[in-house]
Write a structure and sequence with these properties.
alpha/beta; TIM Barrel; binds zinc ion; globular; 46% helix
């Protein structure tokens, strides 16, 4: 009897030790991953079809990832006004470097179609069909979502386009349905404007119109159109226009369950999430705490290949990318550990289905 209870004691002791060991291990793994993140919004820039140049840019990005503790990047074309490179220039990188590099498609193909069609509310049947076929082909080619797409994009330099279409344009509603069907997100650049306003003085690029038109109604109709379509609203925290505020984001998150946002925290504007001088905006932090499952990180980093011959805007943005990543490091170390993990990578894994 005594022997049996002695054995039982030993077994219990061993089980306890194992339990303690595994929870210590789990604790250790969590501590080690503290500060890791996934970058859901990253631009590699090279001339369309110059695969060697894209590979060189990917190599630079992988080095950045190693030093910055970025587990995965999602690469995509910026939202182009005219046709440009798209998944045909990125698919080889995914094959070679996946799962560290994931791609989205449409910025250089669907978005130009949308901007062109956006000039009129009627969409010719041929255009609609081509848009739909392209969207399905993007997903069939291995893209994990659509991006970068825009409904309103202000110009930040003379070689950086101004783009505007109603956010509830029929082609965007169609894209929402296709995204829902494939269960993939749409990465949407949308500079919100609550009421018609004269162009703010900091938007000096001649490409911007004199008056920016109210656009929130269309955006909410897009969000409500198909609740299964995940809309990933890009660039929370760094708004050049002035209306992408914590208050607006809180309101829209409350009303639209299919809305999530990627954080680009740093800008030299009042109201940015992390000011370049280091101050962190408490109103933004309060929204992150109240909606811990609805934010991911998207640095909007640019890496430009040496031989790139296109417009100069990407090289200007490349120089600002380090500042953005510094703001992200600062933000993640400011947040409580569990929130930093969720926003850093857990939410991205879930919303983008990165582990499927
Ligand atoms: Zn953007
Ligand atoms: Zn972007």
């Amino acid at each position: 009897m005594r022997l049996r209870s002695g054995a039982l004691f030993l077994v219990t002791l061993a089980a306890l030790a194992m339990l303690l060991g595994s929870s210590l291990l789990a604790f250790d793994a969590q501590a080690q991953s503290q500060g890791d993140w996934i970058d859901v919004h990253f631009h590699l820039i090279a001339d369309k079809g110059n695969l060697e140049s894209f590979d060189e840019a990917a190599g630079t990005a992988l080095q950045i990832m190693d030093t910055e503790r970025i587990r995965t990047i999602i690469v995509m074309s910026p939202p182009r006004p005219r046709e440009n490179f798209d998944i045909e220039s990125l698919a080889g990188l995914v094959k070679k470097y996946g799962p560290r590099i994931v791609m989205f498609g449409g910025g250089g193909s669907l978005n130009p179609m949308l901007q062109k069609a956006g000039k009129s509310p009627e969409v010719p049947e041929g255009v609609r069909r081509r848009f739909e076929e392209t969207a399905h082909r993007i997903i069939a080619s291995g893209a994990k979502g659509f991006g970068e797409i825009t409904a309103h994009h202000v110009s930040l330099s003379p070689s950086h386009g101004y783009e505007s279409v109603p956010a509830d344009h029929p082609l965007l509603l169609l894209l929402a349905d296709i995204a829902a069907q494939h269960d993939v997100p749409i990465d949407l650049h949308f500079d919100p404007v609550p009421a018609d306003v004269e162009k703010p003085s900091n938007l000096s690029s001649p490409q911007n119109p004199a008056v920016l038109k109210a656009n929130l109604g269309g955006f909410e109709r897009l969000l409500a159109h198909n609740r299964k379509a995940k809309i990933l609203w890009a660039h929370a925290g760094a708004d050049p226009v002035g209306y992408f505020t914590p208050g607006l984001v809180r309101e829209l998150l409350g009303r639209h369950s299919n809305l999530a946002l990627s954080i680009r925290p740093t800008a030299p504007f009042p109201g940015s999430m992390v000011h370049p001088e280091g101050a962190i905006n408490d109103d933004w932090i309060a929204v992150l705490r109240d909606f811990p499952d609805r934010f991911v990180i998207g640095s909007d980093s640019f890496v430009v290949a040496k031989a790139y011959t296109g417009a100069e805007a990407p090289r200007i943005f490349e120089q600002r990318s380090e500042m953005q990543r510094r703001g992200i490091r600062q933000l993640l170390s400011h947040l409580p550990a569990d929130l930093a993990r969720r926003i850093g990578y857990e939410n991205a894994e879930r919303l983008y289905r990165l582990n499927d």
